[in-house]
Amino acid sequence: MNVSSAKDPPAVPRWFRWFGVYTRTIEGLAGVSMAIILAVMIAQVVARYLFSGSLIWAEELCRYLLLWQTFLLLGVAYQRGEFVMLDVLPYMLGPRARLILKCVTAVPILIFLVVIVDQGFDYASRFDRQKIPALDFIWSSLTGNNAGVSVTWVYVSVPVGAALLALHVTADLVVSVLRHRALDDRMPPVTDIEGQL
Asked: How does this protein assemble (predicted)?
């Protein structure tokens, strides 16, 4: 049995530190995309009300950026506990039962996310020949040629977001199990029935 202070942080593997870098990268991308959305929308308002013109590509570009931003941040929102959930039952249970409940509820979630990833990539590939009009318009205005970027890149945001969410759910389970084991190693044996769950 490992004897350490009760104030020691629960064990988290060293390889798990990259997760923080990944999270900060995703948050940075979200910040940049939000800044682009804000700048494009301000330019759209200025063009419309001051110059009586319009940036016909602005709304489409912002829509696609917002879509990608939403799906990229699914995992980060899960990690922070920002999903809506009913957590009355888990708090009524002891640590071991709470961990078991977390594992049991994660299984159908992970199965659903695997199906979304599999079917999402299949669905996105069906739009390979359809091009994004906004990017074609912007690129042809600048270079005279079409950009040729497929709508697949818009639809692929769904399976990418589902894969990232599955990664977060799996990582949460791993950390929960490791923390539970670390706490079990530190705690003295419990003899009463209340501490068994």
From this structure: The complex comprises the extracytoplasmic solute receptor protein and the two transmembrane proteins.
